[in-house]
Amino acid sequence: MDQNDGFLKDIWYFAVHGREIKPGALVHKVIAGQPVLVGRTKAGDAFAIRDICPHRGVPLSAGKFVETDNQPTVQCPYHGWRFGTDGVCKHIPSLYEGQDMDPTKIAVTSYPLREQQGALWVFVPSDLRNPAQPTEEPPLMPGVGDRPARIYQKFDLTCHVDNAVIGLIDPAHGPFVHKNWFWRDESGMREKAKEFAPVKNGFVMVGHKPSANSKVYSLLGGDVKTEISFLIPGVRIEHITAGKHHVVGMTTVTPTGPEETEITQSFYSTNPVLNFLAPVFKPFMYHFLKQDADIANIMQEGLKFDPRLMLINESDIQGKWYFSMKAEWDRARAEGRPFKNPVPEKTVLRWRS
User: Fold this and answer.
1) What one-character DSSP code corresponds to residue 295?
2) Taking a C-beta distance cutoff of 8 angstroms, is the pair 235, 325 a contact?
3) pTM for this one?
4) Cβ proximity of 25 and 39 under 8 Å
């Protein structure tokens, strides 16, 4: 994949929810343009390695688990080469006894992987030959402990990740794209004023009471407060407190190809009633995300002509911050220094939605 693909590297990406990877499973993913095998041994340990056999280029995910010296290895379906969960080649069946070749000198990239709160995160390096190791951990969902997501919904968008992220943090499209009986339309638009501040690797819309025209929050009851964070490369976390309970909505945007992006909406909750009713809300999640997918497909029809686009004040300031953070992330990596967040200390943004 071209290094000018616009994908951030040396950073954590959401890959998949852990319960989608059963023991003994090998799953092919493309994350930030890199083919990744996300697997789980029969003992339950998750791992991630580059999904290309270096012999003839066959995806290792098309193979199967076999035991090699009492350790789980992935066997390529073409010539039977076996790779450990650390990416090191453990066995080449075609070698004869005494042949002067050491299989362990061959390896595919092993990607750092974390399984937390039921989600699998993969760290994607910029240099596959000499990969950087993570200096920080993936984001944690606040207030929910080690609980996994109660429900989640995934969609594929036919657009570059930048356009998907801008749609994710754009506060003005809702009344026009998400016209539903359970959401507001343009007839209910009001002026909003929200305070923003920088956080580690992103920014936050400081905690506040939801707007009066956001009807869905009223279903939570009690004294409701919401705080919305955005973290690069593409993670939006909405932390809602309602009385003593917490509800967290995590939306992740993971690039797969130049014009393909995977978006996943996940909900976590400490409220037992909401957890019981959660499956009822999944069709609404599907409908909501499909509207975003549909507008992304429509947008591609215009983007084919490579038009000059614009971001305006103040409703598009968050988009401008996103591009500034991306540029600073790349500069910091190139200069070998820590990331310096370009988001200003305190900003009040106004718009109508």
Assistant:
1) H
2) no
3) 0.92
4) yes
**54, 68 in Cβ contact below 8 A?**
no
Name the nearest CA neighbour of 47 among 101, 120, 147, 117.
120
317 in Cβ contact with 349 (< 8 Å): yes
Domains and CATH numbers, the chain: 3-124 (2.102.10.10), 151-352 (3.90.380.10)
Q: Tell me the DSSP string of 131-182.
A: PPPPSSPPP--TTSTTPPPSEEEEEEESS-HHHHHHHHH-SSSHHHH---TT
AA letter at 74: V
Q: Which amino acid is at 21?
A: I
Longest distance between any two alpha carbons in the chain, whole Å: 79
Listed in sequence order, the residues at least 6 apart from 207 whose beta carbon sits closer than 8 Å to its beta carbon are: 225, 226, 227
Q: Are 268 and 147 in contact (CB under 8 A)?
A: yes
Name the nearest CA neighbour of 330 among 4, 1, 2.
Answer: 4
Peptide bond preceding 314: is omega within 30 degrees of 0, i.e. cis?
A: yes
Element spanning 91, H or E: strand 89-91
Q: Are 39 and 50 in contact (CB under 8 A)?
A: no
Cα angle 16, 21, 154 (rounded to 5 degrees) comes to 35
* Tens of pLDDT, residue by residue, the chain (353 residues): 445 789 999 999 999 999 999 999 999 999 999 999 999 999 999 999 999 999 999 999 999 999 999 999 999 999 999 999 999 999 999 999 889 999 999 999 999 999 999 999 999 999 988 888 999 999 999 999 999 999 999 999 999 999 999 999 998 888 888 876 555 556 767 888 999 999 999 999 998 786 654 555 555 556 889 999 999 999 999 999 988 899 999 999 999 999 999 999 999 999 998 888 888 888 888 888 889 888 988 998 999 899 998 899 999 999 999 999 999 999 999 999 999 999 999 999 999 88
